[in-house]
């Protein structure tokens, strides 16, 4: 597939503090990418360089095969900055129409595009309203609508669910799922579970270095250490992540007693990684686990095949 973003040995410092240190990555068209890193790891700086707002100290940045110099590439690239603000005294529709006309659209074309993006983000009913009446979550949706104007080929989203309650965060995730076929999304967020729903590829940025860039789907490959399926001593082994809402007395011991279980490890509060022998009927273990929960009147939140993106992040952090 075509590479639309290419960074080769990109570095950036502010004074004596090096924010990006020889970062290299290739992003191909049509493949949503999660950019994951702690606060201060350099995610926003990386986005600013891609937009042309900052210049790298060294290295090469290419967008659509051309070296970034100036703002010419912004006709094809859009960015949603964290906590974008809108003029409280103008209607949503009029503001978006102005932004659309900055894409060299006629008034008629601009209005058509505004109607399109408001429908995509579920804001059509608010077109005549002023932005000041919108909740924080709805303003996030409005910012996504703005980023869609002009049908960009790439959209950079910096913390699109920051500060949102779980319901609004899920709404934003669903919108991103709906639009991921319209443009290539690069999403920076701390909401790892939501990123896992949207992005097949993840790039970990830590202390200015891009320490890992791989397809998230690769965790399902047998050779991966985080695999849903692997081979241990010639025996087919499956991994399942179990999430519970509460502490369940005796849970670990009773799961260990199931014949197929190889190991069970608590990865965080009320979450466990279970490795078990697949055998001839890999779903038999899941049936046994469900039966165990039913017999003990227990409740669970999720069964996840393989290891979660969140656990991979903590695992890598602990390894360093």
TrEMBL record:
Gene3D superfamilies: P-loop containing nucleotide triphosphate hydrolases. Residues 5-232 form the ABC transporter domain. GO terms for molecular function: ATP binding; ATP hydrolysis activity. It comes from the Bacteria. InterPro entries: AAA+_ATPase (IPR003593), ABC_transporter-like_ATP-bd (IPR003439), ABC_transporter-like_CS (IPR017871), ABC_Transporter_VariousFunc (IPR051782), P-loop_NTPase (IPR027417). Pfam families: ABC_tran. SMART domains: AAA (SM00382). Keywords: ATP-binding, Nucleotide-binding, Transport. CDD domains: ABC_DR_subfamily_A (cd03230). PROSITE patterns: ABC_TRANSPORTER_1 (PS00211), ABC_TRANSPORTER_2 (PS50893). This is ABC transporter ATP-binding protein. It comes from Thalassotalea mangrovi.
